[in-house]
Structure formats: C-alpha cells, structure tokens
C-alpha cells in the first residue's frame, strides 16, 4: 500500500529545559526545536494492519524526517535527537541560533511556532503504570523482584498488552526488570546535546538517584535513620511499573519528555503518571494545542489515562499548571497523621513543636545554651544564630548542651537547612538542638521540618513556644556586665518525635496545592473546564527513596523520605486508577476519572465540610480547591453511573474554544471540526459543570451510562449556586445495565454575582449509588439569553 509522505505544516519551538516546574537553562545558545509533520502518526492510521505495516510506516516517517532536514539545513549544523512516530509525526533537533527557524520558514511549509523545551498484594494485578519522571531504583524493597527479565527483551504481564523493554545501563543491570518493574528506559538526547547532562552526577540509565514513588509492594517496613516508622504499601501493590526516565538532577527537556510519553503509550501502559508540569501555561487561545497537550490527548485517544500534578502554586487562585480536560489533574491534601514533638523545661513547662528525631539521652535534663552564647564573637550574628556550620562554636562550651538556634530568612531561601543544624549539633558534641522562630517570619510552613534526624532536635514552630523558651532561658542565664553568658542554669529535655499521632481535621486542602479557576488565561478560563479534578493525600507522605541520592545529608543513604507536594498526590490517583482498571478493563480514561470524581468525599473525618488552607486561615473548600473532592477508592470502583467521553468529544470541545480556528485544529490533530459544532465548551460530557460567563441562561446537557451490574432508579436533586436557578430534567429515571441517557440542566441567572459560586447535582440510586457532580458558575449578567 503506497503511503506518500507530505510536507511539514508547522514548526514548534519548544526551547529551554524543564525542571519541576519547567524553567530556563543556563545554556541560552543551543536550542532544541520540535517539528510536526502533516501526515498522520501511527495512532491515527486505522488502515494499518499488523506489526509489519506499522513498522514499515514508522520507518518511512523517520526517513522522511531525515530527507527533509538534509534538504533545508546544512550538514553538521544540527543533530536529530528523536523521530516521533506513534502519537505524533515529527522530530526534535538540536541546533544553535534562531536562524534555524528562519530556514525552516523559508522552506515554504511552516505556519507557526510555540515555545517550550523540552489492599492486598494482588490489587492492581495485570495493570501497568507508566512513570515519566526521574527513573526508578530497582534495588528498593518497594519494587522487589519477582522474575528476572533480560535487557532489551519485551516484557509481558498477565492480562496486559504491555510490550515494553528494559534498557540496561549504569547501576541498572540486566536483572533490574524483575516482574514488578516490567519496563525501564531513559531519554536524554536533548539534555546531552545541550550540554546539561553531566556524567559525574547523572546516570545514563533508567536508574533514579533520588525519590521513587509508584505502585509499591505491600507491607514494606519504613526504616529511616535506623528507626521503624511503620509499613508502606502502594495504592495498587499488584500493579506493574514501567519507568520512563526523562528528568535528571538539573531538570530535563520537553523533547525528552515527549519522547518518553510517546514510547510509554506505544509500549502499552494502562495509566501514565506525570508528577511534572510546565513552569507556566502557554498563552493565547491555542494553549490546548500545545505540543505536550496534544501528546497527552493522543495518549488518551489510545486508551491511556493520564494523571498529572496540578502544581504547587497555591493558595493563589488561577495557579494550576494542568489544564486540559482530557488530563486528570490532582490536588494535594494534608492528612490527620502528625509527627509532633515536645520540649520539657526545667520549670515543668512543656512546649510543643515538631521534629522527627530521637529523644535526649536517658530522660535527663541537659543545660540549654543559645548559639550566640557559645560561639566566638568574630562571626556575624546571623551565621551563629542559624547554626549552619560548626566553625563559630567554642566546642568546650557547646558540648553536652541543648543549643538554641534561630529559623531565619536563610531557611526560607534555602540558603540554610534544618539538616545542617543537626549536622552542626553532632559535630560540636551537643546534646541536641532547639530551633526557634524569628518573629519576622510566619511559622505556617517550615521548610525541611519533616526530615528524619539522627540527633535529638525540635522545631518550635510557633511564636508562643519560641517566646516561652527565650523567657525561661534569659531568666536562668547569668551574664557579665558586658553581656557574656557566665552560667547556664536553664535545663530541658527533648522527647521522642518519631511517633505518629492521628488527630485534627483531615483531609484539608494543602496551602501549596494550586487552585482554579483554570489557568490565569482568559481564553482557557472561558473554556469552562473545572480544575483540579480530584484530590489525594500529598503532605508528609513516606516515599521510596534512593540511598544514592545526592540531596539532603540526612536522607542520603536512606530508603524512605517524608515528602510533600502535588507530585506525591499524583501517584495515589494513578494507583487508584489501576485498581479501577483492574476491575473494568475496557473503561475509557474519561470513565475512570468520572468514577473517582462522582464518588469523592466532601466531608472530612469529623463529618464537617472539607477545609482548605489559605495563607493565615482555613475556609470551606470549593471545587477550585479540590475539584470534585477527596478521592474515595472503595466507592470509585463501583460508581453506579459514569460520564464518558472520547476523542471525538474532545475534538468538539476544541472546536468550541473561543479563538481556536478550524484550520489550527485540523493541523494539530489531523481532523477538522464537524459541520454541526457545539456552541459551548460546557457541553463536554464531563463529571462537572462549569460556566465561566453566564449571561441570562444556558442549557447544558450530560449523558450518563449505567456501569453497575443491575438496573437502577435514580432521583436527581440540585443545590443551586448563588445567583443561579437550576432546573434539571428528568428529575427521576430508571436506567438499565450498560444503557445511557441524557440529563439536561437549564441554568438561569437570577442576579449578577461577578464571582464564581458553587453548587452540585446529586443523583441518588435505588441500589445505594450516589453520584455527585460539582457546579461552578460565574454570573456576568441576569439580562439576555446565551
């Protein structure tokens, strides 16, 4: 079958390297350019029959890339890094200077450019989770062996279509892919070409020298600094892991990330977990057509559920970085597990704080000394007070004492760390350390307060405790006329801070978790997409850690670390998605996301509404804080009804986005808009309803499908957003197994709000299924019809 290759239609400049979040590189001369070809990639070619046809088509695409480059660019002026063939038809090259764009434009076949470079052991069985991240440590017990697989050989798991391979390399031997890890590859061509890849620190293999969080094995002891903190299990312990390393110690390049995603989907992963995102959202109406968003759209078209961290830009509104409706965007919560510590003073007073540290020896009281009182006077006050190194200390005076240090602005800027305080205490022979708060710094977030320590230590993370300690210390320290400390009569002991307590309200939306409404982009906000989609635990999560990490001195050599961020919440959702996939093999990504959203919890453990952390307060959480709510795994497996969507529905959504023209869509996805276009983006069959500009009234339609094992009767009720009257038809219906039916909502503005207000539609079934759909509406005017 002849397959003519046609011309380039667009060049996509995806320059500058990515980190978490993606940022700029120091190498401003060299650039990586990504170019899309007009012909369809493999995933769009339904006419291909069998592996031989596919392989031939891939070879032809790659050859055409080479021919085109040779025809327009000088030999030696560029290096081709990748040919993309599965989800996209295009390539990435490394070249120097902006003149490459001009050359490609003069070829007469270029139309545009976008910047950016780049429960049990069986739960989850048969499902493969693809991790696009910093790689994996195959020696960790959470990823322990089952069956050895040779390097470069395809790996098949029971009930899975997965056909990925294992790439051996530095610290990643032939036996690293072991049946738990079923595939491992790394992507660094852009990083190497740009000169960012450093062979002395970056492993040329899938090996990860830092954190690894995935579908870990069941009941693994969490041991850090020789203390057992309990046991860890992945959300889907029976799921398999395929690692696609595209990020390194310096960050990474988007072209490497796109290559990793492309390979993961071609290999046949079921779920794709991205704990990464761009530094900022692309501007303009074509942001949804950004090359990464397109890559993930085609991954969804291939049946792969894409789960992405929403970002750590909270509590500011419109701070999310994961914005497309075909991606499941994850917010982070704090839990009720706390590691508290306390300091008992010689006068019997007990001060509360934090610190994952052992107690002072023998339960006895030790002398207390301020750092400045046991240091030489020829050092600056800040250097002494922050206790960042042992040089200023007079060891004979400091030895055997509890040293009071100060949490200064240096800690906030990461010029100082709590680990350095602990290291200093150990070097000078102190009995431990007490870190007090600077009055000029708020104590809501203490950086590094969850690091595990080998020496006794406590962070008095509130001004009341800090002030009480200083008052006690000053009243019990005898000084000379010049102010020098002569006698240290203050005494104290530190208790054990390594025992978890479970108290307080939870879950609570973490202050750092990025918030909606959608991104800070008027066009994207007008697209009526609710983000985040769902929330999962993300604060103080015990994560598998590589002992080879070159990071924090007190996590180096450890197998677990306590980490926080939306990147920790994301694997929770990926694991829960694997559980759903195990039970419902043929569900679409949208159905899986719908199941998690419509069954999410809106109440915390105390029975009250879930709260959200803001800078200095707690407030009831809204859908812009946590999406549909906090994920409930057990209910998500049996949701009753789902709101399903497929590629054609996302295409209709794109065609309704304001400012996106038909030609742009046709060039980007290979298909034009249908003759009968959707009028509103809000018509996408999502498990939420968002209207960003209600003028007068609007009709919104949703289609539900019964995925339960029996017919069921449902009644529909609505909690109306302020300023909006909502009428739903039908108010009651019966639906058969596997059947679908439409639900229509008529939204009528009753008063102008000029802010988003929130409500929900609730469908209650006769078989005890409860399906909740969040509603977010911005009423611009109560006059007119829309």
UniProtKB/TrEMBL annotation:
It holds the Pfam family fn3_6. Residues 57-107 form the Inhibitor I9 domain. The keyword Hydrolase applies. The keyword Transcription regulation does not apply. Residues 683-777 form the Subtilisin-like protease fibronectin type-III domain. Residues 1-26 form the signal peptide. InterPro entries: Peptidase_S8/S53_dom, Peptidase_S8/S53_dom_sf, Peptidase_S8_Asp-AS, Peptidase_S8_Ser-AS, Peptidase_S8_subtilisin-rel, S8pro/Inhibitor_I9, S8pro/Inhibitor_I9_sf, SBT. SUPFAM superfamilies: Subtilisin-like (SSF52743). Residues 124-629 form the Peptidase S8/S53 domain. Keywords: Hydrolase, Protease, Serine protease, Signal. GO terms for biological process: proteolysis. GO terms for molecular function: serine-type endopeptidase activity. Belongs to the peptidase S8 family. PANTHER family: PROPROTEIN CONVERTASE SUBTILISIN/KEXIN (PTHR10795). This is Subtilisin-like protease SBT2.5.
